[in-house]
Design brief:
The chain has 194 residues and is of the alpha/beta class. It has five helices and six strands.
Length: 194
């Protein structure tokens, strides 16, 4: 049986002039990660698989360096493709995110649909699980992390299942019998070595 963690990147520096996938972690995001490593989380014995986006890679590198963990990048673990709109102000982003979750079959304003993103992230998860027997820490993003959780727990995609804040994680175990949920999204501040 493998232990599974999925961590969304914490806070980023929002730069409207830079493509969203290239945004970097903010000082606050780094502080939260460093505080978790100071508590010994996630500890040794994990293999990290991360999204190719800069903020996720920076999250993965910080944790990998703290505990000498192997790190791999999976190209299909990126966040929902929102390149059709690029940067949009927070309130408008939240309105479109609500629509993304409410109507999974269609992407608002040209965004990748929740159904397409779910298929992509689930396929990436299955590819990794077929090749790796270690405990796995996936590092990615809130929306696709929620879609993966919903797919693995066989629950509907709803905004209520989404994280409340970046830098949250969910947990479970995986075996030949499938995925068993440990807990849904919770803040990084609750992370402790078990």
């Amino acid at each position: 049986m493998q232990r599974i963690l999925y961590l969304s990147h914490p806070e980023v520096n929002i730069d409207p002039q830079t493509p969203v996938p290239e945004w970097k972690l903010s000082d606050q995001g780094r502080r939260r990660l460093i505080a978790s490593t100071a508590r010994g989380w996630p500890g040794r014995g994990w293999r990290i698989v991360t999204s190719p986006e800069t903020k996720a890679q920076q999250t993965a590198e910080l944790l990998a360096n703290a505990f000498a963990l192997p790190l791999h990048i999976h190209p299909d673990m990126a966040e929902v493709d929102r390149s059709a709109t690029g940067y949009i102000p927070h309130d408008q982003h939240e309105t479109l995110a609500d629509a993304l979750f409410a109507h999974p079959e269609t992407g608002p304003m040209g965004w990748e649909s929740a159904i397409a993103a779910t298929a992509r992230i689930t396929q990436a998860f299955q590819e990794v699980m077929a090749e790796v027997s270690d405990n796995l820490l996936f590092i990615g993003h809130g929306a696709v992390g929620t879609f993966l959780w919903c797919a693995l727990t066989k629950t509907p995609i709803t905004r209520a299942a989404d994280q409340r804040r970046g830098g949250s994680f969910w947990a479970g175990t995986y075996s030949a019998a499938g995925f068993v949920a440990g807990h849904p999204w919770q803040g990084l501040e609750t992370a402790a070595v078990k």
